[in-house]
């Protein structure tokens, strides 16, 4: 794994998730099982793709949220909704993206994504 | 949002879920976050599509259960299995629909759907 | 492969596709490559599932069309739309099933399925 | 179908596809088979969702392209890539969205989407 | 359901899951609801497909794990990861299969599958 | 993009597709539109994942074919079936993988994959 790519990737990840980036990495079970995988994701997904010029970081975040909602990937959606807020995308914008998901991926996909968003945004908590 | 469409949609929803329709609406977290979304679903999905003549309500329910099972949308499947029972579709018919799902969407989709159905039907409870 | 299951399956297939069932079988390339697969489908999908009591053949056809539309399986959808017509399900009913697919699987799935149906029904031909 | 919703939807569609909007509507086979469906899409998807404030039209276009690429809906992707260009989104931005699709939906999804984009952009033509 | 097919299927299942095969069958809720379904799976999936010569049992296990990871079927993935270990496939090989899933089905699919694998392998437990 | 990763990736690609690797690269429309994407795939998918020890190249090929069949990615499936043959995997083994796909992803997925395989293997040609 290339060190420069890893550093470039970690830099993008730190913008999306400043608190996670500041803490220790790789302590969850899947990262203990396959530490190389999470280095691969940092170096390739973030270091080779997200770090490219040609599309604003805000836009990369918005389209990622949209794709994760459409594909029903709720764990990753949770993380990227938090990341989007950290980049300054508003709750209202995110809700609109998730509502529109109903058109292209069906009502259940939008419903599920809004349920995840309610958790991330702390809506409905006591 | 058009009031007539909303009313037409709510009428269909009341046939599928009489008890829910009689109670207060929009109290779950996602509905608190995006109340417009659930009005949109009532007005468009139920008011514009389910309320159309040309296909029996029973058939609309059956094909919805089938699609949700095939797509692995378990939350919505749970709701629509309950709705199907309310419309008079039998457990046996629903089990047959879910078994047949294995042919077109694979055994894991059918297995997951039958697990949801066991919960809805109260099978395996103490 | 069990002969009784195969016979039971072929009987169901003959109701859906009388003309195909009357002709020679297995002449398309995939059937030449894997003749066992198509015997397996006849014996298991049709002989073990479709032939079961507990759900009307018409309902089995309707939910299959719905699932294939939701999953975007256009080749199989074409065959099962033709089969549904052979069982006496009307064009109008099938169009309603496909329109409703937009709610659960998204507008593009419904759009694609209606395009297939237009071909099967000979709509838009010169 | 509500006339105001339909008008609101057609207004959005005219921004995405000015030339289509200026011509006759509903002449393709699926629209001949199910004209109501395309009115439903205009009134609900475009009139009820895309026309909402809270998210820029440019952002709605970008996330739609992203979702269609992730879901492998090539026909709709073709139309929305053209729509995105009409809204002033650049080719470079769209290529970045499609490349990033590899991360969340896999390399084959991105590959297929870039193949569609090459056609829409007239790249590789003689 | 054919007894010979069922026996052939049970024989394969006993190689994948010796402990389950030795115990009572069909005690989970979905099996109580639809006992015929699980006999169908044993007779068709295992008795008609897995029991065929032409592909090593180890290879059948490996490609099944790969498909379940790609499709996001976590319950079945859990069972087949355990089955793969019982056949002698190593943890390292399984981790490599799941990492590679990121290329063809996206990073979230691989991430989810590795999380399941960490549970099956007892990684990250106290 | 790292040169060493790219070289490692190209080496794997040359084993799967010796003839393609020997010819000029990037001449198809999508590669003209997004040449960086195909370098990214070579460096990340092949240079960072496929080139890893821990899983035999033959096994990587087999599970890739299985995943592409399950996901319905026919273009990539075509290429990887050819690659599998180049690695010495037999037609019979590949047909078994594709037949088994019916169990986990449904009969239509297997049917579609076998149709692709018939083309790659030249079965049914005049």
Structure commentary:
By secondary structure, the first copy, chain A, is mainly alpha-helical. Helix content of chain A is 78%, strand content 0%. Chain A is globular, with a radius of gyration of 15 Å. In chain A, 54% of the residues are buried. Chains in contact: A-B, A-C, A-D, A-E, A-F, B-C, B-D, B-E, B-F, C-D, C-E, C-F, D-E, D-F, E-F.
Sketch the major β-sheet of chain A.
none
Helix content of chain A: over 70%
Stretches of chain A where pLDDT is under 50 for at least 5 consecutive residues are: none
- How many helices of chain A? The count is 8
What proportion strand of chain A? under 5%
Quaternary organization: homohexamer
Based on DSSP secondary structure assignment, what is the total number of beta strands of chain A? Answer: 0
Provide mean pLDDT of chain A, rounded: 94
Q: Could you tell me how far the N terminus lies from the C terminus of chain A, measured between alpha carbons in angstroms?
A: 45 Å
Please tag this protein with its features.
homohexamer; mainly alpha; 126 residues
Helices and strands, with pairings:
The structure is a homohexamer of 126-residue chains.
Chain A: H1 3-16, H2 18-22, H3 29-33, H4 35-50, H5 57-71, H6 74-86, H7 91-105, H8 107-121
Helix pairs in contact in A: 1-4, 5-6, 5-7, 6-8, 7-8
Short description:
Six copies of one chain form a homohexamer. Chain A is 78% helix and 0% strand. Chain A has helices spanning 3-16, 18-22, 29-33, 35-50, 57-71, 74-86, 91-105, 107-121.
């Amino acid at each position: 794994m290339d060190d420069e790519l890893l550093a470039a990737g970690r830099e993008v990840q730190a913008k999306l998730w400043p608190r996670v980036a500041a803490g220790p990495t790789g302590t969850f079970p899947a990262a203990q099982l396959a530490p190389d995988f999470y280095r691969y994701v940092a170096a390739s997904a973030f270091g080779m793709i997200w770090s490219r010029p040609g599309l604003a970081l805000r836009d990369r975040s918005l389209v990622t949220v949209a794709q994760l909602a459409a594909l029903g990937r709720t764990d990753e959606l949770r993380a990227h909704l938090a990341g989007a807020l950290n980049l300054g995308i508003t709750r209202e914008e995110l809700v609109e993206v998730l509502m529109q998901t109903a058109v292209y991926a069906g009502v259940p996909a939008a419903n599920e994504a809004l349920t995840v968003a309610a958790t991330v945004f702390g809506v409905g908590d006591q």
